[in-house]
Automatic annotation (TrEMBL):
GO BP: any one term: phosphorelay signal transduction system
Phylogenetic lineage: Bacteria, Pseudomonadati, Pseudomonadota, Alphaproteobacteria, Sphingomonadales
Keywords per UniProt: Phosphoprotein
Stretches that traverse the bilayer: none
SMART domains for the chain: REC (SM00448)
4-aspartylphosphate found at: 52
Domain Response regulatory residue range list: 3-119
The name this protein goes by in its record: Response regulator
Pfam families linked to this entry: Response_reg
InterPro entries: CheY-like_superfamily (IPR011006), Sig_transdc_resp-reg_receiver (IPR001789), ST_Response_Regulator (IPR052048)
Keyword check for 4Fe-4S: no
Amino acid sequence: MKTCLVVDDSKVIRKVARHILETLDFQVSEAGDGRDALDQCQAATPDVVLLDWNMPVMTGMEFLKALGEVDLPRRPKVVFCTTESGIGHIKAAIEAGADEYVMKPFDRDTLASKLQIVGLA
Ligand SMILES: [Mg+2]
């Protein structure tokens, strides 16, 4: 089964994303900030990380940088989530190592197509 780590400080968004991903046959785990996500990636690297930008403790951007510096058996794909107002972040996130991005609020079809682009659907 494909695995996805949903990283977002909003419990509601994690819940929505989990629901969508489970209908797409992903095994889902959740993290509330980048630090928690990095720890989970080191314990068991998921196939893909769905990554929020604004989070306490460690932001999505800080997570991307840290992920590039830790030694993992393989690199997870990273789909970065942004809002209309955060559209300027896309270029920076891609440069920092994100593979794709999805605009919030996302629906099942949008998320499925992004996962397909990164080779996971
Ligand atoms: Mg957030």
